[in-house]
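pinging the channel bc i need a second pair of eyes. not urgent but kinda urgent?? the chain im working w is below, pasted from the shared doc
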Amino acid sequence: MERRKRPRAPLINRKRAKAMRHDPVALEKFFWSHLRNRQLGGFKFRRQLPIGPYIADFVCAERMLIVELDGPFHAQRQSYDATRDAFLEEMGYRVWRFSNSDAADDWVSVLQSIKHELTASSPQPSPPIGGEGVLCNFREDAP
């Protein structure tokens, strides 16, 4: 999927995201302590990042991956989440959702699965210019 430029978020969302970064819920604070400073596989994450009209919990822009920790109220917001995910996917992101209970009960596995997704989705090296291999000149008289 083509990567699109991230639209500037409305001012109210930028202010709300800033407030959310300064007063995170306990589980997000815990996860951030494991994602920040490139601790997960060397990948940079940002938290509470406004993207268009939405605010994403954790974003790895390098791999276009958004990680969402969903509280219990998301069960009543499935339609909203589907619309939100469709917008973010249209922007080129992949959205991974984890329930707060799964993230709290088995946080090691959640972090391992995120790391696996980040490393598994790394781009393959481009083939050499001019074909499948490198041309070598071998001399028959070389020792």
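so Helices lie at 11-22, 26-35, 78-90, 100-105, 107-120. and The domain at 11-120 is CATH 3.40.960.10 (Endonuclease; Chain A). — does that match what u expected or am i reading it wrong
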